[in-house]
Amino acid sequence: xxxxxxxxxxxxxxxxxxxxxxxxxxxxxxxxxxxxxxxxxxxxxxxxxxxxxxxxxxxxxxxxxxxxxxxxxxxxxxxxxxxxxxxxxxxxxxxxxxxxxxxxxxxxxxxxxxxxxxxxxxxxxxxxxxxxxxxxxxxxxxxxxxxxxxxxxxxxxxxxxxxxxxxxxxxxxxxxxxxxxxxxxxxxxxxxxxxxxxxxxxxxxxxxxxxxxxxxxxxxxxxxxxxxxxxxxxxxxxxxxxxxxxxxxxxxxxxxxxxxxxxxxxxxxxxxxxxxxxxxxxxxxxxxxxxxxxxxxxxxxxxxxxxxxxxxxxxxxxxxxxxxxxxxxxxxxxxxxxxxxxxxxxxxxxxxx
Amino acid sequence: xxxxxxxxxxxxxxxxxxxxxxxxxxxxxxxxxxxxxxxxxxxxxxxxxxxxxxxxxxxxxxxxxxxxxxxxxxxxxxxxxxxxxxxxxxxxxxxxxxxxxxxxxxxxxxxxxxxxxxxxxxxxxxxxxxxxxxxxxxxxxxxxxxxxxxxxxxxxxxxxxxxxxxxxxxxxxxxxxxxxxxxxxxxxxxxxxxxxxxxxxxxxxxxxxxxxxxxxxxxxxxxxxxxxxxxxxxxxxxxxxxxxxxxxxxxxxxxxxxxxxxxxxxxxxxxxxxxxxxxxxxxxxxxxxxxxxxxxxxxxxxxxxxxxxxxxxxxxxxxxxxxxxxxxxxxxxxxxxxxxxxxxxxxxxxxxxxxxxxxxxxxxxxxxxxxxxxxxxxxxxxxxxxxxxxxxxxxxxxxxxxxxxxxxxxxxxxxxxxxxxxxxxxxxxxxxxxxxxxxxxxxxxxxxxxxxxxxxxxxxx
Lengths: 353, 461
Known about the structure:
The structure holds 2 protein chains of 2 kinds.
Chain A: H1 2-30, H2 34-52, H3 55-58, H4 62-79, H5 86-98, H6 117-152, H7 157-170, H8 174-188, H9 208-245, H10 248-255, H11 260-298, H12 303-312, H13 316-344, H14 346-350
Chain B: H1 2-24, H2 27-31, H3 52-55, E1 63-65, E2 71-79, E3 82-95, E4 103-111, E5 118-124, E6 130-137, E7 147-149, H4 155-168, H5 184-187, E8 207-217, E9 223-231, H6 247-283, H7 285-300, H8 303-314, H9 318-327, H10 333-346, H11 349-356, H12 361-397, H13 408-417, H14 420-423, H15 426-454
Antiparallel strand pairs in B: 1-9, 2-3, 3-8, 4-7, 4-9, 5-6, 5-8
């Protein structure tokens, strides 16, 4: 019961957050009437093409042509609801975005040539998800392991050195390190590819060689990311573990004669895991947003670099669509972590009975 | 405490830089950051001067020979019906660097009241060979401005060099590339052997070179002044970018911009969040719920994408970006931290004492609780500054920062647009990135030191 209630409560809040975030996005984007303009110009282009292909229309005198054009154009603008009041329109655009109906891009296309924003983002999303999920996992595992070790050797030279290293590395986002790592490991030492998400020419998709190549291109971004995030984990874990080690139940476990390893992993880490998950949420949220620059630095063709390309081409529908997708991404991430939190925090499960 | 001192030292050094910048590069220099003219005398994408210690070669510096460096012999000749002015205008110099120059440029300011003068340019090499680079007449439109012969890119110059190579015959005619692919700054300075045309393997010929300009004017009042630039391969402390800009100027100006932006944003945001967090923790009830839910909401929404959208659609300057950033930071993690501290303080006895003598809730909050939280906010400000510096850098990287000011993020973004790492222009990306890291680590160490003082748990004994 407790877990279900916790999840429903969080679910309702997150759904509300998602709707509000996308509504804000729409309001900001359409504040200057930008979305209207884009849609109207798209209707105009489509209509012109359609009419010019019609031999009957081409034979008409120009005044007649203009009349027909205007009538059809106005009808279509009305049909798309662009003449509605601002708030009404905004609500409708929000609903469209929530249903992932993200409209058509101006310039950018997907690999298959589609202008649908959902297609463009859809083909890149798995790459971003794969890269940053793995990278976060590596950073977290490395950091927590280091943090435990630092807590065990608390106040030694090792602990102090690692603490300072942790605090100073995690404050800098991955893309800044990426710049140096690409120069050093990519161009100077040639250990890793210097960018891209797959080699040229690419192996046939789905083959083992393809997966291998994709993974090979992920290595340097992943390592960079792990380097930039491990400090946040080790620092948090160290402090939490030191705090928990003073608690009575740990002393009791030690008094029972349990080996230190068991005490650490079964008692201390167990108690430290809910707050660790909470801090994971913040790390992940900033990681997803940092992907915009990180992917650009690594020329990794995910949804982050798509921002860069869309800004360059002033492709407003793609930028708006990406912002909506980001809202989804962050909300879903937080919900998954809430799920994990619910399982880990005994206080929530205790409500079950 | 040592880390705190290091952090303090870093920030102090940045403050000194920020204070000294206007002396090295006054603001009007920065205003010209986006125009081409002020930087034309610098080499393009040149490495820092000190980088020559890696190669062990004495890399060429940019040498500019102004008019007074030239030797000028003027002869007035009278031919029936014509008053000629023949000027022999030469510059001889010794090339002792270990590398080829990166570019050559000659500009001539001619005074000619009459007909267009004729100009011949010759190149004399240490090995005794010489060749005509170009011969041309200066058109009437150049009466009031300099006539520039970009020796490195001029097709006529390249063609004459190609013809000279063919005439010398050391390289088989079949191996001589088209004129477009001749690099004058290499071939003119290379030994006359089979590698002369290959810019990677050409052998440098050190010695005395001479640039000869022969000017034939058609009145006795004709005159010419020249300017000869041998662009180097290295420049200054941190090199130049593709628009020949001195990156040091941009980097130095990046420091005060980043500091000011980060500190102002962090101070305002932490102050507001602290206040709201204290209100939320102290009053509880509906205010608490409202503030905490809003904070949760603000923490989850995609702030950077929304900021990008705003900057892209509304074309903001740096002040407007700051305002928007603060608007998106009125509640957040600091609110939550402060609230939890207030909840602890709330239970302490001195609060009870204040309540018992009838102090109002507002008085307790501002006279008793807020002063207790203040120390924490110092640490929080220091730890929040980097985040804002990075937001500004990210926006500038994407080309959405302030359109006028050179900032670290902007320099980095331009470097990436020009594919600097691919071409090996490491200084263009390494130094702005290093500036960002240096600054943020300063704040991180300072914040960490504050944190240790305030949280005895973390103190090292």
